[in-house]
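Q: How would the structure tokens look for this protein?
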Amino acid sequence: MTHASSLVSGLRSVALTVPDLDLAEKFYTSVWHLDLVERTTNALYFRGTGPDHHLLALHYAEGPAKILYVTLRLRNASAFDVIAKSAIAAGGKVLKPRAILNTPGAGEALTIADPDGRVFQLIHGDVLHADAHEASDKPIRLAHAVLNSHDVEATRLFMESVLDFSLSDRTRIMAFMRCNSDHHSIALGDTDNDALNHIAFLMPDVDSVMRGGGRMKDAGFGIEWGPGRHGPGDNAFNYFVGPFDVVIEYTAEVEQVDDSYQAKYPSDWTWPPGRVDQWGISAPPSARLKEAQKAVLFAS
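A: Here is the predicted structure in token form.
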């Protein structure tokens, strides 16, 4: 049976390194429609219209973009000790023990890595914005992050045993993991490396997903997959390769599920020949998208 995590309440943000903060600021504010909420000497923090302090943290580093960590919010402070012990027992590591953060967003945090080097920052008591709202054509929050895995079942077991995520659906190429009523907050992509596959930003409606596709096209970032509507999660989508080969998605109408939801498996998720989503409008994912979905590795 699928259930919400007793430890993790949701996905808050993703932190990356990029080689050009000026370019990043221009793109993520004027084109992607996030707001710059805080700037430090070496980093930029972008928020959506929702309560999360930031959805995306970009830190300066030379070379190709890398992922630093995925930040998950805890349901309560007692989860810190449970997760630290479980991570070690499951073959992972505690990279940074529980401590008060002096970085934008504040709160307390624990940072762990799974056996393959995927890094999760767990936070509690972080700053929330009081002016949460929805606005046309602006992301509200993160919908999900997809992480590649050369061994999806092992990664899935780590997320279940350490973070109390559960499986919503399993297709031939992906395991969809949930921690709350969203169909998935993390998904695991079957592939031969352990990179960041993509980051999905939740838009207020499908029109905002579509207009975002036009805005990106005007800015020189064509739609690499979409428009479409996924099977698992039932969400509408447009995918792009943004600056530094980071794959980003605009999405809307993510399926909301509860404990009555029954997980489906590859034999349940099949498409007619030539189709890769419910609508069947779009061509399959572009070669460029597939290449970029393996390019952003975890920083060692």
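The radius of gyration is 18 Å.

Residues 206-218 form the longest helix (13 residues).

Upvote if useful.
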